Amino acid sequence: MKILIKRIRELVRMSQEQFAKELSTTVISINRWENGKTVPNLMAQNQLFEFCKRHNIDISDIIIEKYKYYDDNKFILYHGSKNGINGDIAPISRGDCDFGTGFYMGTEVLQPLTLICGEEKPAFYVVDFSLKDLKVLNIELGLEWVMLIAYHRGYMDIIKGTKIYEKYAHYLDGYDVVLGYIADDRLYTELNKFFNGNITDEVLMQCLSALDLGKQYVSLTEKACKNIKILKEDKLSNLELLVLMEKSKIRRLEGNSLSKGIEIKYRRIGKYFDEILRGE
């Protein structure tokens, strides 16, 4: 927090006296915040967030860098938890996640951070993951990836019992880990448009190719979860959560903006989701 506050003040080139006046607080408080002797209360953190918005300051990159972990001798991944991990790590996420029930870990910091930023008591974890003796399925970015997400999000329930439904129902059978791209904030709207029959698979594929999506490892079995070691746990401050919520909103708008031109260009090319489900 102290680095974050000092950086905000430096970005607007204010003295501690000027900064204190802007935030309706004292120089002593600013000094103690920047030295890490005290932490601003909830109201002060809200004021800091509003200050950043007024001055068009984006400190999300500073937050992201803060939570990055460097160790060349370990396979570093990141996990965001809504309420924190209690007990042993287990594949117990809700079933409608991208690849079903499992323990999800991202290769990048931002996605798990934005995933939990709207929660009341989120926790962020750095983990070391060993793939030794595990069977891993690597799903490339494409229609198979999309259809697997469709199955796990319930969009295939209308064709339950069909050949295509059974294919994706058993797609991950026998694997301990699945490695695939993350359907992040920027792609959320386009995926829903595709599943609801508003755009074709070609439009969606073009949107996918235009975005630099991060990857996620999902431990599907208890065996895989035993290979995960927590290296670090962090609780996010209210200021960080507010900044990340704003970042998530901006990313979603960026994705929507990017997709508009693609939708117009490819609107008559490709197949719709219901056509694919019917095997047309």
Task: Characterise the protein shown here.
There is one protein chain. With 280 residues, the chain is of the alpha+beta class. It has two domains: 57 residues, 434 Repressor (Amino-terminal Domain); 206 residues, no CATH class. Helix content is 45%, strand content 14%. It has 13 helices and seven strands. Helix 2 crosses helix 3, helix 4 runs parallel beside helix 12 and helix 10 crosses helix 12. The longest helix has 28 residues. The radius of gyration is 22 Å and the shape is globular. The model has no long low-confidence stretch (mean pLDDT 91).
Features:
single chain, 280 residues, alpha+beta, 434 Repressor (Amino-terminal Domain), four-stranded mixed β-sheet, 7 strands, 14% strand, globular
Walk me through the topology:
Elements: H1 2-11, H2 16-22, H3 27-34, H4 42-54, H5 60-67, E1 76-81, E2 103-106, H6 110-116, E3 123-129, E4 136-138, H7 143-152, H8 163-169, E5 177-181, H9 188-195, H10 201-210, E6 215-219, H11 222-225, E7 228-235, H12 238-265, H13 273-277
Parallel strand pairs: 4-5
Antiparallel strand pairs: 1-3, 2-6, 3-7, 5-6
Helix pairs in contact: 2-3, 4-12, 10-12
Largest sheet: 4 strands, mixed
How many individual helices?
13
Strand content: 5-15%
Strand arrangement across the biggest beta sheet: 2-6-5-4
Shape: globular
Work out the helicity level.
Answer: 40-55%
Q: Could you tell me how far the N terminus lies from the C terminus, measured between alpha carbons in angstroms?
A: 56 Å
What is the SS-derived class?
A: alpha+beta
Unreliable stretches covering 5 or more consecutive residues: none
Rounded to an integer in angstroms, the radius of gyration calculated over CA atoms is 22 Å
Q: SSE order in H/E notation?
A: HHHHHEEHEEHHEHHEHEHH
What is the residue-averaged pLDDT? 91
Give the number of DSSP strands: 7
Total tally of structural domains: 2
